[in-house]
Amino acid sequence: MSPLNHQIRLAARPSGRAEASDWELTTEPVPSPGPGEFVVAVAYVSIDPAMRRWIAASPFYSAPVAIGAVMEAGAVGRVATSEHAGFAVGEYVYGGFGVQEFARSDGTGVTKLDASLAPLTAYLGALGIPGLTAYFGLLDVGRASAGETVVVSAAAGGVGSVAGQIAGIKGCRVIGIAGGPEKCRWLVDELGFDSAIDYKAQDVSRVLGELAPDGVEVFFDNVGGEILDAVLSHLARGARVVISGGLSQYDEDQRWGPSNYLELLRTRSSMTGFVTPDYADRYPEAVAELAGWLREGRLVSREQIIEGGVRAFPDALRMLFAGENLGKLILAVSDLT
Amino acid sequence: MSPLNHQIRLAARPSGRAEASDWELTTEPVPSPGPGEFVVAVAYVSIDPAMRRWIAASPFYSAPVAIGAVMEAGAVGRVATSEHAGFAVGEYVYGGFGVQEFARSDGTGVTKLDASLAPLTAYLGALGIPGLTAYFGLLDVGRASAGETVVVSAAAGGVGSVAGQIAGIKGCRVIGIAGGPEKCRWLVDELGFDSAIDYKAQDVSRVLGELAPDGVEVFFDNVGGEILDAVLSHLARGARVVISGGLSQYDEDQRWGPSNYLELLRTRSSMTGFVTPDYADRYPEAVAELAGWLREGRLVSREQIIEGGVRAFPDALRMLFAGENLGKLILAVSDLT
C-alpha cells in the first residue's frame, strides 16, 4: 500500500466567516518528484489572517484560491524525496506548500532553514513572515524611533506580538491592544509591553487618551475598523499609521472605513500600506537581527500549535478569526522525527 | 455721523448645513487703531470650505468661532488708518480680518501684497492660501512628477483648479473630478486638464478605470466620501493620496470613512494629510513661482466674485457647499477705489 497525502481543499466560497462545510478533506497518493523537482513532507502550516482574503471572490494580490484546489498556506517541512540538484533529502525548507501532508515543488519561492538556529516553528513566527512583517512595517514604514509612543493592534497575534517587542527593543513606549485579560497580562508580564488595552472590556479611545496624553507617534495596525478609528483620534503630529492588515475587514460584509481619517490632515500624519514580500532582498539581514534578539532572550517567539493534522485546519482558522490564539497560530501536520 | 462697520457674526451653531438664521448682521462704529495697531478697510473676503469646520462644535485646529463673534475669514484690504510703524496707510495686506468691513490688527499674521503683480483677488486665489495649498500639497506631499497620472477632486474649486494646472505644468496627465458639464468643459477647454469626470452624471470608478487603466499615481483629494473611495480602488502601486480637505465630511452628520482604505496595503500606497501654514517659511518661493506662471499665461487664477457686501456672506457660503462656484469663491465687501 502506497503512502497517502491528506489535503484540505476549498469546497465553497464563503460569504462571511468560513465554515467547516466550506472545506473538503481529500486523499491522494504521495506525489513523486519529476526531473528538477522535490517533495516536501510538511511539518507545520501557518494559519494566517490573510487566508480569508485568499479565498474571497475578489482577488487582492493575486487570483483567489479556486474551488476544488488545495488551500494555499505557508509551511515548513523537510525534503522527503528529490530530483532537484539544489535541494537534498533531509533539508529543512519554508515555502507555499499548502494545507497538505506532502507537496511537490520545483523550488520556486522555497527557502532553506537553519534548524539549529531556532525551533522549526519559529520560522512561521518571529523568524518567518510574521516577524518580517513586524520588522519592516515597524522600522521601515513606521520609522519608529526611541522615545516614541507605539501602539500595536492584534498585539497578542503572530505579527503584533513581534512588532511590539521590536518597538520595546528600540526604546519606544509600547501600548498593545488585545482582547481579554489573559492576552493583556501576557503582553505586559511576558513580552515587556508598557501597557495593554483590553478592547473587549475597555473603551479604547478613552484609555488611550489616558495612556498617551501627548498622542501616538506610530500605530501598527493589523485590525482596522473601530480600533483604527479610535487610534486615529489620538495621533501625535506627524504620526505614521502602518497598515499591516485589516483583520476586522476581511469578511466583506463587515466593511468599515475609518471615519476619523481627516485626523491625518489635522495632525499632518500619514497612513501607509505595505506588503512584506517587497522586502525579500532584505530578509537575510532581518532574520539575522531577529535571530540575535531571540538568542539573547530579548525577543519571545510564541507559537500556539494546534494538533490534529490537516483535518483540524477549519477549526484552526475559526480560532484565528475568533481571536482565540496567543501568539502565532500554527497547525501541526506531520511528525518529522 | 461716524462711519459704520458692518459685520457678520455667528448667531447659532449649525448641526448640518449652515442656514441664514445661523448668522447675524451687526453694526458698530469703525474702530480706531491703538498704539502699535492699524485698521484695514476690507476689500474681499475668501469663502472657504474650512469655514464649516471653524464653526463646528468640535474644534479641529483651534477653538471654534464663538457664538456672537465676528465670523473668521481670510481677507485682503488696504490700510485705512495706522498707529503701527510697519504698516502705512494705503498699503495692501492679507490677513485673518473676518467677515466685516473694517478690522483692527496689530500685524500678527498679516502679509503685505504687491498689487502690481496681480489683481488683489488673486491673493485669495492662485497666489493665496488656495494656490499655496495646491502647490505644496501636489509637489511636496504628493511628489507628483512628469509622466504620472494625477487625479484632482473638487477640481473646479479654488484649490483643485490650481492643483490640476500645476500638475499639467509639471508634465503630468491630469484628470479632474467636478460636478456638472459646465465645470468639466471649463477644466478641459480653459485650464488644460487632459480629461474630466462629472461625478453627478458619471460613475467615477468606472470612468476612472477607462481613463487610467494603469492606475493613479497621485490623488489630490479635497472631498473625501464616496469619491475618495472610488479613487482608492484605482491606485497605481506606490501611489500618494494627498488629503487636502474633506468637503463632503464637514457636515458632521454625514461622515463616511473610506471603506476601500485597504487598497493602500494592496498597492503599497500612502495617504497623507497636511496643513498649508506649516509651509509658511516657503511661501515666498511658491508665490514667486505661481506669479511667474500667471504672468506667462500658463496658470489661470479664476475667482468668482459675489457682490452684495457682508450681507451676502450666508448665501455665498451656501453656494460653496452646493458646489455652485467655478474657481475660487470670493465675497466683495467694499470698493477701495
Description:
- Two copies of one chain form a homodimer.
- With 337 residues, chain A is α/β, with parallel strands linked by helices.
- In chain A, 24% of the residues lie in helices and 25% in strands.
- Chain A contains nine helices and 15 strands.
- Chain A has helices spanning 51-54, 129-141, 158-169, 181-189, 204-211, 225-232, 263-266, 283-296, 313-321; strands at residues 4-10, 23-29, 38-46, 75-82, 92-95, 102-105, 111-112, 149-153, 173-178, 195-198, 216-221, 235-243, 270-273, 303-306, 328-332.
- In chain A, helix 2 (129-141) packs across helix 3 (158-169) and helix 2 crosses helix 8.
- The longest helix of chain A has 14 residues, at 283-296.
- The two termini of chain A are 22 Å apart.
- Chain A binds chain B through residues 60-61, 224, 229, 243-246, 249, 255-275, 278, and chain B through 60-61, 224, 229, 243-246, 249, 255-275, 278.
- Strand 13 of chain A pairs antiparallel with strand 13 of chain B, so a sheet runs across the interface.
- Chains A, B: InterPro entries: ADH-like_C (IPR013149), ADH_N_2 (IPR041694), ER (IPR020843), GroES-like_sf (IPR011032), MDR_fam (IPR045010), NAD(P)-bd_dom_sf (IPR036291).
